[in-house]
Design brief:
Largest sheet: none
Mean pLDDT: 89
Helix content: over 70%
Strand content: under 5%
Number of helices: 3
Radius of gyration: 24 Å
Order of helices and strands: HHH
Length: 99
Amino acid sequence: MAKWTPKHEAPEPLEGPVVATITGGTIVWFVLFLVQLPFYDWFADRGHTWWLWTCLAGGGLGLIGIWYVRRRDAALKRAAAARDATEQTEQTADLDGRP
């Protein structure tokens, strides 16, 4: 049944400016909503008001995404700081000759 097998390992996930990316996308969704808002009657006449509400929902979900990635970024920084502090403590203990 399983005919497909990977030929190589999957690449590492890309890490980039996640907060900036999510913020930019959220701004785009809200701008699209605001640009379409003056044409509400046109959309309503044709049964396409879901376009506006999709943009508004994208902006709202983007706000949740910004909150989430900012907390994730802060947690990653805290974990890295704690790891560095532990490593520095271990190095200091090794230099002092303590077990």
